[in-house]
Amino acid sequence: MTKSDNPIELVILTGAGISAESGLGTFRDKDGLWTKYDLAEVASPKGFAADPGKVHDFYNARRRNASEASPNAAHTALVELEAKLGDRMMLITQNVDDLHERAGSRSVLHMHGALSRARCAACGATFDAPQVMSADDPCPCCWNNATRPDIVWFGEMPMHMDRIYAALAECTLFVAIGTSGTVYPAAGFVAEARAGGADTLELNAEPSAVASAFADAHYGQASQIVPAWTREVLAQFE
Ligand code: NAD
Question: How far is CA 236 from CA 73, 105, 114, 201, in A?
Fold first, then answer.
């Protein structure tokens, strides 16, 4: 991969942990939404084919939870960083909520898709998702009843991977926030960034499954450790 004219210096990857203090359950929460459903049934193409209504119910509940939640100080801190770094920063999230955008982030790559978007499995069109989706919804482009959440399910290809790998190869710092390091390919980003010569930092509640791959780490609640880190970075510009 070649270095571009305007290299991305900072790549940030966020996971469910950044939204935990906003009240959205992480993957591993004992009482979270995920524990009430079988993932294979609600987050796979096979599960959708077997029972689209059940899958829509699951994502309708998640869409409702996300719309009732508010961004926290960690989301806001990344907005301030983007305001300073602009195109020199890439923010990638595994989250399907829109808390980064609602905090004010302008450019967010949702590698696992977004609750706010829908897709037609028949013609491939993508469009804004209604708050409540159902198996009977017609596609606004081809009118087939084949709409689904525009979310990456297990066994499907994450989005924006070419841009992400190009940025990981050229960045000077990679930071992972609130992610357990158990879901690939995102869990492999730290190794990609290191291979390209980047410094690496983990910000999480506890050491992730790939913690040993990071050069540095701060552990604690995202609403505390993320603003503390962004203050340090922003101080370098003063
Ligand atoms: P995960 O649940 O596997 O890991 C969350 C990580 O965040 C854990 O390591 C945990 O220790 C840490 N964490 C929990 N609370 C924290 C806090 N307050 N501050 C800092 N860290 C905290 O989530 P993941 O790594 O993002 O991967 C799981 C998959 O689940 C992803 O594919 C993601 O798309 C999906 N998911 C998304 C959402 C969302 O959109 N909000 C919620 C749950 C799961």
Answer: 20, 21, 34, 17
Q: 191 CB contacts (<8 Å, ≥6 apart)?
A: 210, 213
What pLDDT, in 10s, does the model give residues 126-152? 999 999 999 999 999 999 999 999 999
- Please tell me the predicted confidence (pLDDT) of residue 1: 36
Q: What is the residue with the minimal CA distance to atom 28 of ligand 1?
A: 27
Contact assessment for residue 171 and residue 8, using Cβ atoms and an 8 Å cutoff: yes
**Which atom in ligand 1 lies closest to the alpha carbon of residue 27?**
2
What one-letter code names the amino acid at 166? A
Report the Cα 189 to chain-centroid distance in Å: 13
pTM more than 0.90: yes
Q: 3-state DSSP call for residue 219? A: strand
185 prior amide bond cis, ω within 30: yes
Residue among 13, 18, 24, 26 to mutate when testing ligand 1 (max atoms within 8 A of CB): 26
